[in-house]
Amino acid sequence: MTLRPILIHPDPRLKKLCDPVAAIDRDLRRLADDMLATMYEAPGIGLAAPQVGVLRRLFVMDCIKDHAAAPQPMVLINPEVTWVSEATRTYEEGCLSVPEQFADVTRPAEVRMRWTTLEGKVVEEQFDGLWATCAQHEFDHLNGKLFLDYLGPLKRQMITRKMEKLKRERARETF
Ligand code: ZN
To answer: What structural domains does the chain harbor?
Structure first.
C-alpha cells in the first residue's frame, strides 16, 4: 500500500465532475487500498478519489470512531443516491482537503445509496448519523463540490485564503 498525497483546496481537480469507474481491475483495487491507508493515516473518516487526484467516482469511508472497535472500511464505487430523508442533521464538518477548518453543514439526516463493491456486487444501504453525513460529503466530492460550497461567501473566502497561505508555506518547506 502506498500513501497518496491529498490535494489541498483550492485545486481545479477538486472542482471537477468525476467519470464513472469503468472496470474493477487490479489498478482500481490498488487505488482503493491506497485511499483507505491514506484516510486512516491522515486520520480521517472519508476520502474521495478526486482528493488524491483521480477523477473517478469512488470513495472510501469508515466512521467507527471507537478505537477499541473493529474497523469497518467501506469502498463505494459509482455510488448513486436513491433516497434522502426530509429530516435534516447539522454537523460540524471538516475535510482532509481543507485541513484544520470546520463549519456547520446541514444535510438530510438519512440517505440511501446504491453502489458497486470491490467484488463487483451492486448493493444498497441506508445510512444515518455520522455515516449519512460522511457519505453525502464524499459523494459531493465526486461532483466537484466541497463542504465550503454550503457556507456563505465571506466564510468561504476566509477559509480559501487561509488554505492558499497554507499551500504557500508548505511549498516553501519543500525547497
Ligand atoms: Zn472532504
So the answer is: 12-173 (3.90.45.10)
